[in-house]
């Protein structure tokens, strides 16, 4: 069912969508996200319970994502008509700015490796793509537990820093914390990471 998308090019796709910011139907494709940092975020279904909390949490940080130059595409296997009604009736989605892709054929979910075939819906799959269209991070989990948008934002910042500097980011890295300068000191660092950073610094 599930396979890794990491280090692979974003699959080609085109599908109907609902743009909650404008209140209009539209279409989206992989080409819309090339040359940008982008997250494609699958969720199981409209009118469920955990899903609107995840969508609302992403939306609450929409401006932060925009400041980082990250485009967001939410996707489920519902129709664009269902998306519109879902956004209009679910109170927690009031003021939604996201675009929601309508993968009603399940083709896109299958290409990303998150389709639950027997149910015709997607797992909770979140994929981060760099401007070259390469997936640098993914998270896939079963439907019952929602994902953490704060942790995802941390990962986005870390990936952008590592990409820009050639340094690597240790566990839990946040802006202002130490990185590991393997781009300049790789021989000295080999087997001596503890000379550069302590576990207390990592966990702080």
Describe this structure in words.
This protein has 204 residues and is an alpha+beta fold. The chain is 30% helix and 23% strand. The protein has helices at 50-60, 62-67, 80-89, 107-111, 149-165, 182-189, 199-203, and strands spanning 14-19, 24-29, 37-42, 70-76, 99-102, 115-116, 121-122, 124-129, 135-141. The strands form two sheets. It has a seven-stranded mixed beta sheet with strand order 2-1-5-4-3-8-9. Strands 6-7 form a two-stranded antiparallel sheet. The mean pLDDT is 95.
Highlighted features:
alpha+beta; 7 helices; 204 residues; 7-stranded mixed beta sheet; two-stranded antiparallel ribbon
Strand order of the largest sheet: 2-1-5-4-3-8-9
Number of strands: 9
Strand percentage lies at: 15-25%
Radius of gyration: 18 Å
Main sheet, how many strands, which sense, barrel?
Answer: 7 strands, mixed
């Amino acid at each position: 069912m599930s396979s890794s998308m990491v280090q692979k090019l974003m699959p080609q796709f085109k599908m109907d969508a609902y743009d909650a910011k404008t209140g209009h139907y539209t279409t989206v494709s992989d080409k819309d996200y090339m040359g940008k940092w982008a997250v494609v975020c699958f969720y199981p279904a409209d009118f469920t319970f955990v899903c609107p909390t995840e969508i609302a949490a992403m939306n609450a940080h929409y401006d932060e994502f925009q400041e980082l130059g990250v485009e967001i595409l939410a996707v489920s296997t519902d129709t664009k008509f269902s998306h519109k009604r879902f956004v209009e009736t679910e109170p927690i989605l009031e003021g939604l700015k996201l675009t929601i892709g309508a993968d009603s054929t399940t083709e896109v979910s299958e290409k990303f490796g998150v389709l639950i075939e027997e149910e015709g819906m997607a797992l909770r799959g979140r994929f981060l793509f760099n401007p070259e269209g390469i997936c640098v991070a993914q998270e896939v989990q079963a439907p019952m537990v929602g994902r953490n948008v704060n942790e995802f934002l941390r990962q986005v910042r870390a990936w952008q820093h590592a990409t820009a500097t050639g340094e690597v980011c240790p566990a839990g890295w946040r802006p202002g914390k130490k990185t590991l300068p393997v781009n300049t000191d790789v021989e000295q660092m080999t087997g001596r990471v503890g000379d550069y950073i302590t576990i207390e610094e990592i966990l702080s």
